[in-house]
Amino acid sequence: MNLETTEIVKKLLASPQKIVIVGHKNPDGDAIGSCLGLSFFLKDMGHTITVIMPNEFPDFLKWLPGVEGIVIHEREREKSTGLIQDADLVFTLDFNCLDRVGEMQGILENCTAKFVMIDHHQQPATYALATYSDVKMSSTSEMVFHFIEALGQGENLSKEIAINLYTGIMTDTGSFRFSSTSPTTHRVAARLIEAGAESAIINQNVYDTNSPERMKLLGVALNNLVILAEFCTAYITLTQKELDEHNFKKGDTEGFVNYALSVKGIIFAAIFIENKQENIVKISLRSKGYFSVNDFARNHYSGGGHINAAGGKSSQDLSKTVNEFISILPRYKNELTDAS
Ligand code: 5GP
Ligand code: MN
Predict the structure, then answer these.
(1) What element of type H or E holds 297?
(2) Which of 117, 156, 169, 191 is 20 to 30 A from 163, comparing alpha carbons?
(3) Which run of H or of E encompasses 182?
(4) Gene3D superfamilies from the xrefs (predicted)?
């Protein structure tokens, strides 16, 4: 975090504040881990903190220290709205634009609080008084660590902070695999382990708690895998019916798209998931190397993200969405070649 932003943040936090910390819709491990990690830090400084998420989050994160205090906006609209309207400060974490919070957008736009953004997505919006944005960062959770260090408190990490930030970094880097994982990411992870984050236990809690239904749904997804060798592309589809037959719960399809990307020679992978309730198809995109799925998601699916991981949605039905996807690929033929 640069000196100017650090000075603004120090001034904002100089006296006890009522603070709300907000993550993005469909929160993932990084959104939850970074928000909770920051919440413990700010609480230790003497501020009053509430973490608010727009909607539900997956069961594999429900063991994290502090989850019991999270307010889910979709479940407690009045409480969440009141907290935001009453806040002195709002921290927005792990998203770059207020349209990522769903129906909370208007409430945030109309509140009187000052905003602080901590985020690693491309093209950050300019709503915050203090913006700490760095697209090279592995995760927002890593950035929260740097934020704490910039405020001179890097030696005072509690176990609760360490566990939350480690989980966020681990999940957003695909267990330290993605190219966003830097030497500094590993140094930060080491510091978090020293502060009490037990890597083996965190891995078990996140990755070894699958329900049998989720494993069967993965089987269906893998069965639906389609390879478009000509474009070094692979995609997976899941219909609402397939989800219903496997008692789908939020988070169950997390990571499925990576199986498509793991096929030899594939550099672009997509998963299309039917969501009848929202009347959309939710799309997750992944790539290897220089092919920007952030651009692809922005251009075709009103979405965004990072160069190698992005998402968006389509309001067409599943088969139309997939057909359109296939028809778009020839435009990218030159980029969709396996350089390895
Ligand atoms: P996932 O595919 O795991 O849901 O998301 C991958 C990345 O893309 C994450 O960084 C996420 O924040 C971003 N992302 C996913 N869906 C959307 C979307 O609908 N809009 C935008 N702007 N970003 C998204
Ligand atoms: Mn993230």
Answers:
(1) helix 293-301
(2) 117
(3) none
(4) 3.10.310.30, inorganic pyrophosphatase (n-terminal core)
pLDDT tens-place string over residues 81-115: 999 999 999 999 999 999 999 999 999 999 999 99
- Tell me the C-alpha to C-alpha distance, in Å, between residue 110 and each of 17, 24, 84, 106, 107: 19, 18, 10, 6, 5
Could you give the CA distance from residue 73 to residue 316 in angstroms, rounded to a whole number? Answer: 27
312 CA closest ligand 1 atom index: 19
Say which ligand is closest to the CA of 143: 2
Give the C-alpha separation, 61 to 285, whole Å.
22
Q: ipTM value of the model? A: 0.96
Cα-to-centroid distance, 61 and ligand 2 (Å):
15
* Nearest-CA residue for atom 6 of ligand 1: 310
Model confidence at 162, pLDDT cuts 50, 70, 90, reads: very high
Please give all residues whose beta carbon lies within 6 A of any atom in ligand 1, as ranges. 24, 100, 121, 284, 303-306, 309-313
Ligand 1, atom 20, residue with closest C-alpha: 303
Q: From atom 3 of ligand 1, which residue's Cα is the shortest distance away?
A: 284
Residue 203, number of CB atoms within 10 A of its CB: 14
- Which of 32, 98, 100 is the best mutation target for the ligand 1 pocket, counting ligand atoms within 8 Å of the beta carbon and taking the most? 100
- Of the bound ligands, which one is closest to the alpha carbon of residue 26? 1
pTM of the model: 0.94
CA-wise closest residue to 181 among 304, 306, 284, 63:
306
| Helix locations, 55-209, DSSP H | 77-86, 105-109, 140-150, 159-172, 183-194, 199-207
Give the pLDDT mean for 263-283.
97
| Residue nearest atom 2 in ligand 1 by C-alpha distance | 284
Among all bound ligands, the one having the nearest atom to the CA of 310 is 1
Neighbour count for residue 19 (Cβ, 10 Å):
25
Which residues does residue 139 pair with via DSSP β-bridges, in sequence order? none
Q: Which two tokens stand for residue 53?
A: 């998420």
Atom of ligand 1 nearest to the CA of 94: 12
Name the residue at shortest CA distance from atom 8 of ligand 1.
310
